[in-house]
C-alpha cells in the first residue's frame, strides 16, 4: 500500500502538467479583447473603467469650421455639461484636422473635465450628398491620428462618422458599419466606438434599429454605442419613446447624438427627447453650441460663441426641465472617486 503522503505531490505534478497543456486551448476560447482600460459597454449600459454608469449630457461643437473658438470647450463645461461632441474633418470634404489638432482638442476636454466624443463629419449623407465620403475613409482617418488617441480610452469616445448614409441605399449601413468597426479594432483601437444611424442620422427606415444587435456582435470588443439624431422625424413623444425603448429593451446602448428644438424637416419634440433620455438613463448631445448657418441659426445655443448670450434654445437646453443643469453628472474619472458632484441621477 502506497503512503498517502506521497500521492498528493504526484497528483499535483500531474495536474500542473495538464493545466500547462490546456492553457493554449483555453486561451483560444477567451475573448479577443483585453480587460477594458477605459469606457466599456456592459449589459446595454456605458460604463467608466471603474464600473460606474456614465450618462452623456453634452453639446455638439463645430470645431473643424471654427478652430479659433477652442475656448468654447471651457464655456460648455461652465454650463455644466459633462460631454462635448467635437466636429472634425478627415480632409475629403473639409480641411483635415491633423494629429496635433486632435491632441489639443483632447487636452482641452481633459483640462475642462469633459468626456470627448470625436466625430468625422465628411461622411454626412453619403449617397445623397455630393462630396461626402465613406465610413471606410473615416476609419482610415482615425488610424492616421491614432497617436493623439492612444491611452485616452477613459476620456475619448470615437464616433466613427457623422450621419454616414443618406436616404439612398440606407441598407448598406449595416455592412459598412461592421467593416469600419473591425478595421479600427484590427488597428488596435480599444476605445468605445460610437456609430451614427443612416437616413442622415434619423433612421426613419429603422435599418440601425433592426440591425443593431448584429452590428454590436460584429465588434470583437463588444464596445459599440449606437447614436440616433432626432430632428423632424421625431415630432411626437410616441415616436421618441418607441424608438429609444426598443434599444433599452434589447439591452443595446443608445444615445441621442444630435437633436434640436426645431429643424427644416419638421419640429422635433425636444421636451419628449430630454424626458425620455432622463427616464431611461441614456445620453443626449444637443446641436449645437454656436456657428450654424443662417438658415438654421435657431439651432445656436449661444449667439456668436458668447456664453453670456443664450438663445431660447440654449436656455431650454441648459436650464429647462431635464436639461443640463438639472441632470448632468461629471465623469468620475476626473474626481478619482465614485462620489463626483452630481445635481441629479437618472432613473433606469
Descriptive report:
The chain is of the alpha/beta class. Helix content is 34%, strand content 14%. The protein is built from ten helices and ten strands. It has helices spanning 4-28, 72-78, 99-111, 135-144, 173-186, 207-218, 237-249, 270-280, 312-319, 324-327, and strands spanning 40-42, 45-47, 57-61, 83-88, 115-120, 156-159, 193-196, 224-230, 254-259, 284-286. It has an eight-stranded parallel beta sheet. A two-stranded antiparallel ribbon has the order 1-2. α6 (207-218) links the parallel β7 and β8 (224-230). Residues 1-33 and 337-348 have low confidence and may be disordered.
Compact overview of the structure:
The protein is of the alpha/beta class and 348 residues long. 34% of the residues lie in helices and 14% in strands.
Strand-helix topology:
Elements: H1 4-28, E1 40-42, E2 45-47, E3 57-61, H2 72-78, E4 83-88, H3 99-111, E5 115-120, H4 135-144, E6 156-159, H5 173-186, E7 193-196, H6 207-218, E8 224-230, H7 237-249, E9 254-259, H8 270-280, E10 284-286, H9 312-319, H10 324-327
Helix pairs in contact: 4-5, 5-6, 7-8
Amino acid at each position: 500500500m502506497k503512503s498517502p503522503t506521497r500521492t498528493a505531490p504526484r497528483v499535483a505534478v500531474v495536474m500542473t502538467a495538464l493545466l500547462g497543456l490546456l492553457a493554449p486551448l483555453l486561451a483560444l476560447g477567451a475573448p479577443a479583447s483585453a480587460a477594458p482600460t477605459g469606457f466599456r459597454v456592459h449589459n446595454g449600459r456605458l460604463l467608466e473603467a471603474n464600473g460606474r454608469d456614465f450618462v452623456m449630457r453634452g453639446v455638439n461643437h463645430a470645431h473643424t469650421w471654427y478652430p479659433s473658438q477652442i475656448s468654447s470647450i471651457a464655456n460648455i463645461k461652465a454650463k455644466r455639461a459633462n460631454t462635448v461632441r467635437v466636429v472634425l474633418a478627415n480632409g475629403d470634404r473639409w480641411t483635415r484636422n491633423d494629429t496635433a489638432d486632435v491632441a489639443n482638442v483632447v487636452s482641452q476636454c481633459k483640462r475642462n473635465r469633459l468626456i470627448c466624443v470625436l466625430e468625422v463629419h465628411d461622411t454626412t449623407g453619403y449617397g445623397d450628398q455630393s462630396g461626402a465620403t465613406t465610413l471606410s475613409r473615416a476609419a482610415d482617418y482615425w488610424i492616421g491620428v491614432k497617436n493623439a488617441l492612444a491611452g485616452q480610452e477613459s476620456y475619448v469616445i470615437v464616433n466613427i462618422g457623422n450621419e454616414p448614409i443618406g436616404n439612398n441605399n440606407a441598407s448598406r449601413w449595416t455592412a459598412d458599419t461592421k467593416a469600419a468597426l473591425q478595421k479600427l479594432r484590427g488597428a488596435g483601437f480599444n476605445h468605445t466606438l460610437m456609430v451614427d444611424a443612416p437616413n442622415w442620422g434619423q433612421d426613419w427606415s429603422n435599418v440601425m434599429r433592426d440591425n443593431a444587435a448584429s452590428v454590436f456582435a460584429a465588434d470583437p470588443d463588444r464596445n459599440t454605442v449606437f447614436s440616433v439624431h432626432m430632428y423632424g422625424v421625431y415630432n411626437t413623444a410616441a415616436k421618441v419613446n418607441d424608438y429609444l425603448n426598443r434599444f433599452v429593451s434589447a439591452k443595446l446602448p443608445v444615445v441621442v447624438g444630435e437633436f434640436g428644438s426645431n429643424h427644416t424637416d419638421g419640429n422635433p419634440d425636444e421636451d419628449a427627447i430630454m424626458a425620455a433620455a432622463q427616464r431611461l438613463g441614456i445620453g443626449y448631445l444637443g446641436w449645437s453650441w454656436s456657428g450654424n448657418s443662417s438658415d438654421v441659426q435657431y439651432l445656436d445655443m449661444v449667439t456668436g460663441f458668447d456664453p453670456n448670450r443664450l438663445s431660447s434654445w440654449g436656455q431650454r437646453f441648459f436650464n429647462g426641465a431635464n436639461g443640463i443643469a438639472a441632470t448632468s453628472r461629471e465623469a468620475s474619472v476626473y474626481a478619482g472617486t465614485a462620489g463626483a458632484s452630481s445635481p441629479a441621477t437618472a432613473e433606469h
